[in-house]
Amino acid sequence: MVRPPSIDSNGMKKGAWSEDEDEKLRSYIQRYGHWNWRLLPKYAGLKRCGKSCRLRWVNYLKPGVKRGNFSKEERQIVIKLHAELGNKWSAIAEKLPGRTDNEIKNFWHTRVERRRKPNHLTKPINTISFIEKTDSSEATSLSTSQDLSVPFDDASFSTNSSQEELELMLSEMLKEDVAQNEGLAAHVFNEEVLEFDYPELRYSELSCSYGSFWNESSNASNSESETSSYSYNANPPVEEEGLLLTYDPLLQYFDYETSLFW
DNA sequence: AAGCCTGCCAACCGCGGAGCG
DNA sequence: ACGCTCCGCGGTTGGCAGGCT
């Protein structure tokens, strides 16, 4: 899991840290502090560059550094803060005692970001189902409902999507929601398609309303058009694929315990 | 059983900003 | 104002471990 030790052109060791090196660095910093990272390794008796020492200390040796899986609360905080701050890992880490920016960044890239990529898809066909909601001011009631299932060639989330995957996918929607900085937010599926099928969680419960739909064949100008009647292509070619959905801010109130919104 | 693939995470690298002379 | 040094941040890489075929 770690890089094998090696020596660079300056005679500095690189790669995985040994227990002996850890102990030298730990005991030196506990005794003298880190007054100058560049000079520290020399005084601590380490053949490492200052940068490497700093990284090892901050991410691994520093007292209080937490290891292991992120708790549900921590995941929620990361997701929420990322929606607000973007890739400001150090700023996010400040709000999560014991977690380092590196760890949060790894968490994001491996558990969240990855899942948005079409190549991550495992099943050939999936559906995205939602129910039209005409009055966005009444978040909890639906005046009309229309169940639409849109098949896609790619599917980010299989029907066996885990609770965690679902949470993460929804959190991504929330990020877009926040990013729009409007009462109602938009999430464009055009470039990064997020699809899922999760029977327990229909869009009716998200109080989501669809907005518009790309359909090149029906729009010569290739422009986005609001569709009061949903233009539905049962099997759209990839270049025509794309769905613009608007979400109610209610999306923020997703209950991670029940998988439902309230 | 063996080879391949994917997930995960420690560590590296490059860049930009702050501080200082 | 400028150049240099140092530090911290964010992006990326390398490779082990475990699952899959």
Automatic annotation (TrEMBL):
Pfam family, one: Myb_DNA-binding
Location in the cell: Nucleus
SMART domains: SANT
The name this protein goes by in its record: Myb proto-oncogene protein, plant
InterPro entries: Myb_dom (IPR017930), Myb_TF_plants (IPR015495), SANT/Myb (IPR001005)
Record-annotated Myb-like domain positions: 9-61, 62-112
Organism: Salvia splendens
Keyword annotations from UniProtKB, A to Z: DNA-binding, Nucleus, Repeat
Major localization class: nucleus
Alphabetized GO MF terms: DNA binding
GO (cellular component) term, any one: nucleus
Function text: Transcription factor.
Domain HTH myb-type: 9-61, 62-116
